[in-house]
Design a protein that fits this description.
alpha/beta; D-Maltodextrin-Binding Protein, domain 2; three-stranded antiparallel sheet; globular
């Protein structure tokens, strides 16, 4: 009996020690560099944003932020890299809706369960899209653009890829406009689509504004209308689709931070706080505005709700259009 009591006391003491050690380890977070996975190549919008955030985030956490680019596979490679990492707060990723709200509908056998694999941390920015043409295009507003498309069945539009948020934004508009007869020309990224538009090989495109902003400022690209709910401060003269005859229309995207599912809540909270402070700083506010991005943040629960809403919306549209990324 005495031996059993001694064993029980030892087990209690051991459990307390383990708990104390876990609490201490968590309280000491972070004590080494934090890796942030990006699903696109260096130099793109996601990469640039992540590197801008990384400098100040590293200062707030007291550890370096290491950006790890893992492009390809419709962001599946980056998603699987995050899933394979330890849920300890030392690996994070910056994703857009492609990874967490679209891929599960674009593959017959989804490569991962987006609803269970990731823990949302916070939204970082919203991204406006626009219908874009060359300056000499014979339409200066959305009504004239729609009339031109109706007069030219099979009118082409380009995007940065099949099944991504930009492509689906235009598909949403086609539906809203009564099923415009248009042909989608998918590109491997925004840069080649923009070059073909500038070169006259492509008559129109739906593109994220940051990717085309230098050409818009230079007067080489004309934006017919924006997909956001309200006008952009940097493009105040460009109306939205909603105010151009399609009330309630909105189709923008976002960048957001995720960690692997199972990451301790205290670490998720720490990252959320540090990221919200970073995005709210004057430096990041100024930089995001210069990129035509809207800096916004959220709680993890709010972000999770947004991801679920987007998954429902995009899932319906992808199934309606019969889109698939399977070869």
């Amino acid at each position: 009996m005495i031996q059993m009591k001694s064993l029980a006391r030892a087990l209690v003491a051991c459990s307390a020690a383990v708990l104390a050690f876990g609490a201490h380890a968590q309280a000491a977070y972070p004590n080494k560099p934090v890796r942030v996975i990006v699903g696109y190549a260096a130099g793109g919008a996601t990469d640039n944003l992540t590197r801008q955030i990384g400098v100040m985030l590293g200062e707030k956490l007291g550890q370096p932020i290491v950006v790890d680019n893992k492009p390809g596979g419709s962001t599946v490679i980056a998603a699987q890299a995050l899933i394979a990492s330890q849920p300890d707060g030392y690996t994070m990723a910056v994703f857009d809706p492609s990874t967490v709200a679209m891929n599960q509908f674009l593959f017959k056998k989804p490569p991962y369960d987006a609803g269970r694999a990731f823990q949302p941390v916070t939204v970082l920015t919203r991204i406006p899209f626009g219908i874009m043409v060359k300056p000499e295009f014979p339409a200066n507003n959305l009504k004239e653009f729609v009339a031109h498309v109706k007069a030219n069945p099979g009118f082409a539009f380009g995007s940065s890829g099949a099944g991504n948020p930009v492509h689906l934004a235009m598909e949403s508009f086609r539906n809203a406009a009564g099923g415009l007869n248009m042909v989608h020309v998918p590109y491997k990224g925004g840069a080649p689509a923009i070059q073909d538009l500038l070169g006259g090989q492509l008559p129109s495109m739906m593109m994220d504004v940051p990717s085309a902003m230098q050409h818009i400022k230079a007067g080489k690209i004309k934006v017919i209308a924006l997909t956001t709910a309200r006008r952009s401060d940097l493009l105040p003269d460009v109306p939205t689709i909603a105010e151009s005859g399609y009330p309630g229309f909105e189709a923008s995207s976002w960048f957001g931070a995720f960690v692997p599912a199972g990451t301790p809540p205290a670490i998720v909270t720490r990252l959320n706080t540090a990221l919200r402070e970073t995005m709210g700083s004057p430096q990041l506010q100024t930089w995001t505005k210069s990129q035509t991005l809207e800096a916004v943040t959220s709680t993890p629960d709010e972000f999770g709700a947004l991801v679920r809403t987007d998954a429902e919306k995009y899932g319906r549209l992808i199934q309606q259009l019969g889109l698939s990324l399977d070869n």
